[in-house]
Amino acid sequence: MVARPMALRKTVWIxxxxxxxxxxxxxxxxxxxxxxxxxxxxxxxxxxxxxxxxQDPEKLQRLYGKLAQYLTKELKVPVxxxxxxxxxxxxxxxxxxxxxxxxxGGLTGVQAQTQVPGADxxxxxxxxxxxxxxxxxxxxxxxxxxxxxxxxxxxxxxxxFTFGSESSTSGRLMPQYFLQKAGVNLSDFKGEVxxxxxxxxxxxxxxxxxYDAGVLNQKVWESRLQDGKADPGKVxxxxxxxxxxxxxxxxxxxxxxxxxxxxxxxxQTAFLKLSPAVPEQKEILELFTAEKFxxxxxxxxxxxxxxGREIGKIK
Length: 315
Fold this sequence. Notes:
By secondary structure, this protein is an alpha/beta fold. Helix content is about 45%, strand content about 15%.
């Protein structure tokens, strides 16, 4: 075996040390993407948006995919949509910082705000300032509509009934509140009340006769009538509730450190700018079943918070 010259061995040793340091730094900063930027750095500069899964997943993917493209263009930062499995998962992902901007219902929005100090409600649809829930019934149930009389909710006693998600504002929280105002307790229904997990599922279950009656988001009801998925020959609209504040966008306070203190205002402006006069933006608004977005603030959901605490959905 031939001994290496001392100078050569020293050069090899130094090169190995330098390579180890470089690899160590690369490992700490995450894998490199095609542009040579670390994945971690890219993710830090990406706005991650999400939404409660209140409707058909395919429709949500289409809606938020188009919205992500629009926001990427308006905000000049990459925007990606990250779907979640259920309402609680949306709140948890926001709480731990996996989502930066989330389309919440009234209740989940308040849950997020109370768990993340500094989180702000920034925008809602024009319809969300005066939102309603729609009580529906299968025609074979024998329950007659009582459109202008809250006391008609008593007619639901003794029937099977389903809400939407357990954390839904329009599919559970506010309907339960109005039922209680009319003197109807959950124990007054036949058997255990159901929780369908989404507004579309509630409609399908009632229309199929699995439940005699149920309650869902008014806008989903109207949209399904329009697209033919709700059959007036099988299901009746019984009652529309009084109005309340509901859906809204909530932004995480950490975006200020990543994108600047003015970033929440830029995001709000992007939503307010959506116009039915621009074809691509009109499609987004139609998928949201809205004419436009308007500003909102945390204090608008004080009633939701109060009712949420009363029924134990907010601690």
